[in-house]
Request: fold
Amino acid sequence: MPFQIIRNDITRVEADAIVNTANPRPIIGAGTDSAIYKAAGEEDLLKERLAIGEIPRGQAAYTKAYGLKAR
Reply:
């Protein structure tokens, strides 16, 4: 399956998914992590992340996009 790498503001990219490797714990970090939470809607995204809990290294989880243009 082909994919494309794009250098842009991750919160404005229309994509199937975005990947945020900022923190395994469900907290709002700084930088890109903070920008993603703000664009998505901090309350909704944080609530879903708290339900997921800590994500072990080497594993992944997914959330809804909320206010982001990703699916």
